[in-house]
Amino acid sequence: MKREETRQVYLDYSATTPVKPEVLEAMLPYFSEYYGNPSSLYSLGQKSKNAIRAARGQLAGLIGAQESEVFFTGSGTEADNWALIGAAMWKRDKGRHIVTTNIEHHAIMHSGGFLEKEGYEVTSLPAGKDGLVKPELLEKAIRDDTTLVSVMFANNEIGTIQPIAELCAIAHGRGALFHTDAVQALGNVPIDVHGLGVDLMSMSAHKIYGPKGVGALYIKKGVNLPGYIHGGAQESDKRAGTENLTGIVGFGKAAELAAQNLEAHIAKTRELNDYFIDRVLREIPDVYVNGSLESRLPGNANITFKYIESEAILLSLDIAGISVSTGSACASATLEPSHVLDALGLPIEEIYGSLRFTVGDFTTREDLDYVVEELKTAVARLREFSLFSGQAGQ
Question: SS in 3 state form for the chain?
């Protein structure tokens, strides 16, 4: 008898997404047919240049920007680095104080750490237990020498969405620039950069069903951010190096699809996520959801399972063909506890008992039913042998 294959369920869309068939189809001709260097003057090169221009327009359309305000990078991490370090350099005559939060992506945290070594002062605002940063804390922290405020749009671990427009208005009221890391928010919530008022915004293609290795930085017209990579004149003299043509084309197509399907995508992922959270909370004892239940990404569920370690649950689910995360994909190889959950005040043992489940366009309710049943089995078995098993159910 042929052995039945293990069902495969992917619930880590915040880490990365599969490339959609339409995106791959758009990219393929630029590998072998329209492969010219975009800086070349002959027609083959100009076809590539036009493709980049079209992709820039597609991404600009998704966020309500002008084409000239979109600059392609190699990743969201590069965009974060460029935003923080570039803004600090541009405004260093005004001051050397930067405000961010204690739940930012490591790309922001480490860029801030670099700037501190260069003589800058970085203030990290604390998030509340729900993961939200209170505007009044920014009002107290901002100073006359504050040049930049950077607050992520939506957290990559717990999905909490910040009040960006309100925070941006506070920064502008004191003459500071405002940057937001929107890598997780892009394609998952409506974004209008001009309505929000942000000066800088980081994005990434592989979070919206596009390819890896390409990101973008929105730079508001009039914000004269210095170039970050030096050499050629690509990206309006802002980022040198031959462009990742196929990646940019893929990013553009993914952005176009995201704009077309945004309302349906939000409705589907929210319905699935709510269904999943409801079943887990009802059917598995001693669990709770981290972050805000109201102001959160529609597809994110970060859940703590008391008395057991999340890594053991993850491995059990992996055997069953289920892919989930213990937190940020960028930090998953380390043994350090999540700085985000630590900032929310979780006890260390409960931080190590937390998993992130994120649904996407290819998730089905049947997938979630399968995951819940496997999760119930894994949690019950692991708690039976846990050092904390005597506390379970108390």
Answer: CCCCCCCCEECECCCCCCCCHHHHHHHCHHHHCCCCCCCCCCHHHHHHHHHHHHHHHHHHHHHCCCHHHEEEECCHHHHHHHHHHHHHHHCCCCCCEEEEECCCCHHHHHHHHHHHHCCCEEEEECCCCCCCCCHHHHHHHCCCCEEEEECCCECCCCCEECCHHHHHHHHHHCCCEEEEECCCCCCCCCCCHHHHCCCEEEEEHHHCCCCCCCEEEEECCCCCCCCCECCCCHHHHCECCCCCHHHHHHHHHHHHHHHHHHHHHHHHHHHHHHHHHHHHHHHCCCEEECCCCCCECCCEEEEEECCCCHHHHHHHHHHCCEECECCCHHHCCCCCCCHHHHHCCCCHHHHCCEEEEECCCCCCHHHHHHHHHHHHHHHHHHHHCCCCHHHCCC
Catalytic residue among 267, 330, 348, 380: 330
Burial of 376 by CB count in 10 Å (0-12 exposed, 13-18 middle, 19+ buried)? middle
* In the predicted structure, residue 25 carries a pLDDT above the cut 60: yes
168 noted as active-site residue: no
Total-model pTM: 0.94
CATH number for the domain spanning 186: value is: 3.40.640.10
Q: How many domains does the chain have?
A: 2
Q: pLDDT tens across 64-97, in order? A: 999 999 999 999 999 999 999 999 999 999 999 9
Question: Domain of 105?
Answer: 21-258
- The domain boundary residue, chosen from 224, 258, 292: 258
226 occurs within a structural domain:
yes
Residue 3 lies in a domain: no
Tell me, yes or no, whether 275 and 159 share the same domain.
no
Q: What is the pLDDT of residues 337-370, one digit of tens each?
A: 899 999 999 999 999 999 999 999 999 999 999 9
